[in-house]
Design brief:
Helices cover 45% and strands 6% of the residues. Helix 4 packs across helix 6 and helix 6 crosses helix 7. With 198 residues, it is mainly alpha-helical.
C-alpha cells in the first residue's frame, strides 16, 4: 500500500490529483467504473451507473494513494465548493486501510462510518480546529484546511446517503470519551485501526 509521507506530500500539485469535469455527463463517465466496481455494492444500491444520482465529486479507490484522483463536477450548483473540495481531499488523504479497505469491509455499515468521520473532519477543519482537534495524525493535511467559514455540506436532495445521520453518529461517538478523536484520526490518516462502535 502506498501512503504518502509529509516530505512527498509537499511536492504534489493540485493538477496531479484533481480532475475537474465541466458537466454531469462528463463526471458520469468517470464515475461509472468506481460505482460499478465499488460504490454500488458498498451502499447496496440497485441503481446502474447510467441512472444513479451523482455526487458532486468522488475519489477513486486505489490502494496506492499516489494513483488516486479526485473527480469534481464544477457545474453542480447545489454544493458548497470549499466544503466539497475539502471533503474529497480528506478522502484522498485517507490511509488505504481506512479508504478503501475499511470502507468496503461491511457493506451498508462501514461506508457510513467513513463518510461520517470524513464529514466530521471536514467541518472541524473549516471551523478552525475547535475542541482541541490538533493531534499529530493531522499534520500531513493541515495545509489543505485553510477555510474560516462553516460550509453547507451535503445538503442536496441528490445526496446518495444520509449525511445528517452519518455525521451525527460519528460526532456522538467521537465526543463520548476522551481520546476517541485522536484514535479515529490515527485510523483515518495513519491506518492504525481502532474500535469504532457506531
Amino acid at each position: 500500500m502506498g501512503h504518502l509521507h509529509s516530505r512527498e506530500f509537499h511536492s504534489i500539485q493540485a493538477q496531479q490529483i484533481f480532475v475537474l469535469h465541466a458537466d454531469e455527463p462528463s463526471l458520469r463517465v468517470a464515475f461509472a467504473p468506481t460505482w460499478s466496481n465499488l460504490f454500488q455494492r458498498v451502499v447496496q444500491s440497485p441503481d446502474p451507473a447510467a441512472t444513479v444520482s451523482l455526487p458532486g465529486g468522488f475519489v477513486t479507490p486505489e490502494l496506492d494513494q499516489r494513483k488516486r484522483k479526485i473527480h469534481v463536477n464544477i457545474s453542480a450548483q447545489e454544493f458548497d465548493w470549499l466544503g466539497l473540495f475539502t471533503h474529497e481531499f480528506v478522502h484522498w488523504l485517507s490511509h488505504p486501510r481506512f479508504y478503501p479497505l475499511f470502507y468496503k469491509s461491511v457493506p451498508g455499515t462501514t461506508n457510513d462510518i467513513v463518510e461520517g468521520l470524513t464529514d466530521y473532519i471536514t467541518l472541524k477543519c473549516m471551523k478552525g480546529y475547535a475542541d482541541g482537534l490538533t493531534p499529530v495524525a493531522m499534520q500531513e493535511y493541515l495545509c489543505a484546511c485553510a477555510a474560516r467559514s462553516v460550509a453547507k455540506l451535503k445538503k442536496s436532495e441528490r445526496a446518495a446517503y444520509n449525511w445528517a445521520g452519518q455525521y451525527t453518529r460519528a460526532r456522538n461517538w467521537l465526543k463520548a470519551a476522551p481520546g476517541n478523536e485522536r484514535a479515529a484520526l490515527e485510523f483515518v490518516f495513519r491506518g492504525v485501526q481502532t474500535h469504532l462502535p457506531f
